[in-house]
Specification:
mainly beta, Jelly Rolls, six-stranded antiparallel beta sheet, 18 strands
């Protein structure tokens, strides 16, 4: 018996500016200039990757509030300071899958900002997170894009590929079998960013599934504070599906900041 998950469209995180085109003109020059440019980029990329280690992705901010009822029966619209998308808490889950096209972020003013796009199990109503996806980072006026995964109990972001680009075709999944979790991201456009990893967790709650666009947070012992959200236009999740208690279903949604 298959349980069909209703459709939902939510737009709840901080406003983002429309995507801006960026044209980089590169004049012919000596190989020394090219080498210097490559070295500068490599240092900037290393710094951007290092900054990600201090982020928290996938844990829903605790200061959310229930808003007006959705027009779709059985659904509740929740206002969040750092999430936009869909979460289901109706049962115990074993699978979450989804596809999207990597959005472009606009970086200006040198401010550091992030936008994470992911699917996963847990995080909405629990401290355990089993999630994967892509992460866009604005650092020093440059845009960097990564593939990543995160797994309880460390809840630490593990970056994998750094050649993700806007327009890349991304698919992600988290599949649980007992206490074993297989996390997989496929970048069909640039396969070097793809990965599959299997992790174990005997104390994960498995109490929710999500398809989320997020402003990541920096956390202390006492609280987590969302970091400024990188400017992106929208992201549409497709081929989204979940399995809970052996029943499957599909949804369609778009995460679009107002």
């Amino acid at each position: 018996m298959h349980r069909r998950v209703p459709r939902l469209l939510t737009c709840t995180i901080a406003a983002c500016a429309p995507v801006l085109g960026l044209v980089i003109a590169v004049a012919p020059g000596a190989s020394a200039a090219t080498s210097s440019s490559a070295s500068t980029y490599a240092h900037a990329l290393a710094a951007a990757r290092a900054a990600i280690r201090h982020l928290t992705v996938g844990q829903h901010a605790t200061d959310h509030a229930v808003g007006r009822e959705s027009r779709i029966k059985g659904l509740t619209q929740v206002q969040s300071t750092n999430w936009s998308g869909y979460a289901d808490t109706s049962t115990t889950f074993s699978t979450a899958t989804g596809n999207w096209t990597e959005p472009s972020v606009s970086c200006s003013g040198g401010r550091t900002s992030y936008a994470a796009f992911w699917v996963g199990i847990d995080g909405f109503t629990s401290g355990s997170v089993e999630q994967d996806g892509t992460l866009a980072e604005c650092s020093g006026g440059r845009a960097f894009y990564f593939s990543w995964w995160e797994m309880y109990p460390t809840n630490a972001i593990q970056t994998v590929g750094s050649s993700v680009q806007p327009g890349d075709s991304i698919s992600a999944s988290v599949v649980r079998s007992g206490t074993s979790y297989t996390l997989k991201v496929t970048d069909s456009t640039h396969p070097a960013n793809s990965f599959t990893t299997t992790q174990s967790c005997s104390s994960c709650a498995n109490s929710s599934v999500e398809w989320i666009a997020e402003a990541p947070s920096q956390c202390t012992q006492f609280r987590c504070t969302p970091i400024p959200l990188a400017n992106f236009n929208s992201v549409s999740f497709s081929r989204t599906a979940a399995i809970g208690n052996s029943a499957g279903g599909t949804i369609m949604l778009c995460a679009r900041p107002p």
